[in-house]
Design a protein that fits this description.
One of its GO terms (molecular function) is ABC-type oligopeptide transporter activity. Its main location: membrane. The chain has 19 helices and ten strands. By secondary structure, the protein is α/β, with parallel strands linked by helices. Among the domains are: 171 residues, ABC transporter transmembrane region fold, CATH 1.20.1560; 172 residues, P-loop containing nucleotide triphosphate hydrolases (Rossmann fold, 3-Layer(aba) Sandwich), CATH 3.40.50.300; 71 residues, P-loop containing nucleotide triphosphate hydrolases (Rossmann fold, 3-Layer(aba) Sandwich). The strands form two sheets. It has a six-stranded mixed sheet, with helices on both faces. It has a four-stranded antiparallel sheet with strand order 2-1-4-5, with helices on one face. Helix 2 packs antiparallel against helix 3, helix 6 runs antiparallel to helix 9 and helix 7 packs parallel to helix 10. It is elongated, with a radius of gyration of 37 Å. The structure holds adenosine-5'-triphosphate. Adenosine-5'-triphosphate (ATP) binds next to helix 11. The site of adenosine-5'-triphosphate (ATP) has 16 residues, from helix 11.
């Protein structure tokens, strides 16, 4: 329950909604009680009028008595109608304040979670899967909203109604009150249990539905592979099984739901029977008038829904507490990547790795071991190495996605940790290994890192990334939409849009993480020479498997299993006749074979 305390700040923020809502609830309940009193009065009036009516039997006054009775009943009926109308109006206001408050809180909470997600480091995203992140911001927030909205509203309603109605009932007749209220706690407890079963089964259905949607989504994304391997029938069968599971669980829920209303009706019926029976006994004993029975039946009906809602509210609060606990878990996760001095500066691009070692926190893999190198401002460095040798890890550390485990990483001779995160990242152009494009137009994708989009900058970046010719061939040019994750572009085109996006923001440090793997060597050379021009006065880090990418760099380091194996210029390393030369010869041979083929 203490987890829900996180929401108290929102109740403070929307206190006027809450206060006004409570007042509206009280007023609407008052107009709910008025008709009951009028009904009692009408019954008693009927009784008395009937006696007088009979006493005047055969006299002319009899019809006057009847007319008097009819006009009184008409006025009382009108009063009941007006009360019901006013009750309805205030119920409308009640929902307009409290349910509206819950929607505001839902909106604020979603924003709070989303903003917090953005501050969390990559390691957090590795630990938690996307489904879980989405569930907390959607399903869990919805469950919490049920607490801050309906549960609070019906809770206050129940409380005020109890306070207003029960003492009033006792003041009329304590014995009848006790008997007519006996079945109500039973009703509340049964609703609580039935509701828990319903919730449990609904969650099972949700789980089943989420499996079904994940399955469908994956089969559509992988439709190419499915068709190429002729697995349609298998996939059909798997879908059928997942669908069957969903149906089975839905039927189980339908069964319990079917029990829900008969149960409520049965228990309400029991209350009414008690009221009529005990009421009649009391009437015979002369303790109450018949009108009181009618009045009490109305009270019992009025109290039934709040009592029913007690079980319902309890289970909503329990579920909301569980959801808020999950949300708090994420909200309390703090990013360990923080700035020590919040330094803001224009970076020149001097990078120094001093005895840097790094171990991935989640896998425990030591990706870098005592790595030292230096890139002066405006220089370019190529990092070459086999798969898993730690190349991308270097890029991750420069972008400060992670902090070094040992050693020091300096930018412009200052520890990278001293800079504010935004300062470092905003001056880096990063082209990641796995290209990610947003499902937007090409120009929007290129301008992604810019605060304001100037078409000339976008066009220039596209030109520098050797993309202009391709874009000209698209019917909509720069306005071509790239589809989900850029599916309408070829691998090489996607990589070049990603490069254009990085250079458009004119970074001080450009990092290309294997960004040219999907383009041929001719395009690679064209991009690299264009880049040599653009990156004049800026620092570039070119990560690659291919020696061809390293030729244009001022210096090269060769990594193997997280260690620097060789370093120097391209020519020096060729002359050294070591691992770099071996790789160079092998790749040159490969290219030759490709050309012959
Ligand atoms: N996010 C991560 N969490 C845990 N371990 C990781 C993570 N990323 C990489 N590793 C591990 O760290 C090592 C170095 O990975 P890295 O991505 O730096 O290699 P790489 O040289 O860029 O390889 P490739 O050329 O195949 O991209 C690998 O053994 C890899 O399994």
């Amino acid at each position: 329950m203490k987890d829900l305390a996180h929401l108290n700040k929102y109740f403070g923020k929307y206190k006027w909604h809450l206060i006004l809502g409570t007042i509206f609830i009280i007023i609407s309940n008052f107009f709910g009680i008025v008709p009951a009193v009028i009904v009692r009065y009408s019954f008693d009036l009927l009784q008395r009028s009937y006696d007088i009516f009979k006493a005047f039997s055969g006299f002319e006054l009899q019809s006057t008595t009847y007319e008097l009775f009819a006009s009184s009943i008409f006025i009382l009926g009108l009063l009941i109608l007006i009360s019901a109308l006013l009750k309805g109006v205030f119920m409308f206001f009640m929902r307009q304040t409290i349910i509206v408050m819950s929607r505001h809180i839902e909106y604020d909470l979603k924003n709070e979670i989303y903003e917090h997600y953005q501050t969390l480091p990559l390691s957090f995203y590795r630990r938690n899967n996307t489904g879980d992140l989405m569930a907390r911001i959607s399903e869990d927030v919805s469950k919490v909203r049920m607490y801050v909205g309906p549960a609070i509203m019906y809770g206050i309603n129940m409380f005020t109604l109890f306070v207003m109605v029960i003492p009033f009932m006792f003041s009329i007749n304590p014995e009848l009150t006790l008997y007519s209220l006996i079945p109500l706690p039973l009703l509340s407890i049964s609703i609580y249990f039935v509701n828990n079963i319903i919730n449990k089964r609904s969650e099972e259905i949700q789980g089943s539905l989420s499996n079904l949607s994940t399955f469908v989504q994956e089969s559509f994304s992988g439709i190419r592979v499915i068709k190429a391997f002729v697995r349609e029938d298998d996939i059909d069968r798997e879908f059928d099984a997942a669908s069957e599971d969903y149906k089975h669980k839905s039927l189980r829920l339908a069964f319990v739901q079917a029990l829900f209303f008969p149960l409520i009706m049965g228990l309400i019926g029991l209350s009414v029977i008690f009221t009529v029976y005990i009421g009649s006994v009391e009437v015979f004993e002369g303790a109450i008038s018949t009108g009181v029975i009618a009045e009490f039946i109305i009270y019992v009906n009025m109290l039934t829904w709040p009592v029913t809602s007690l079980g319902w509210i309890t289970s909503i609060i329990q579920r909301a507490a569980a959801s808020q606990k999950r949300i708090n878990e994420f909200l309390q996760t703090k990013s360990e990547i923080v700035s020590t001095h919040n330094l803001e500066a224009d970076i020149k691009g001097h990078i120094q790795f001093q005895e840097v070692s790094f171990t991935y926190p989640d896998s425990g893999i030591e990706a870098l071991k005592n790595v030292s190198f230096e890139v002066k401002p405006g220089e370019s460095i190529a990092i070459i190495g086999t798969t898993g040798s730690g190349k991308s890890t270097i890029a991750n550390l420069i972008c400060r996605m992670y902090d070094t485990s040992a050693g020091e990483l300096k930018i412009d001779e200052q520890d990278i940790k001293k800079y504010s995160l935004d300062t470092v990242r905003s001056q880096i152009g990063y082209v990641p290994q796995d290209v990610f494009l947003f499902s937007d137009t090409i120009s929007e994708n290129i301008a992604f890192g810019l605060d304001s989009m100037e078409f000339d900058d976008v066009k220039k970046a596209a030109d520098d990334a050797d993309l202009l010719e391709n874009i000209d061939r698209f019917p909509n040019g720069f306005d071509t939409r790239v589809g989900e994750r850029g599916i309408t572009l070829s691998g090489g085109q996607k990589q070049r849009v990603s490069i254009a996006r990085a250079i458009a923001r004119e970074p001080k440090i450009l990092i290309l993480d294997d960004a040219l793997s999907a383009v041929d060597t001719k395009t690679e050379n064209a991009i690299l020479s264009a880049m040599a021009r653009i990156m004049k006065g800026r620092t570039s880090v070119i990560i690659s498997h291919r020696v061809s990418s390293a030729k244009l760099a001022d210096k090269v380091i060769m990594l193997d299993d997280g260690r620097v194996l060789e370093s120097g210029t391209h020519d020096e390393l060729i002359a050294a006749n070591g691992a770099y030369k071996e790789l160079h010869d092998k790749q040159l041979q490969g290219e030759g074979e490709e050309t012959i083929v």
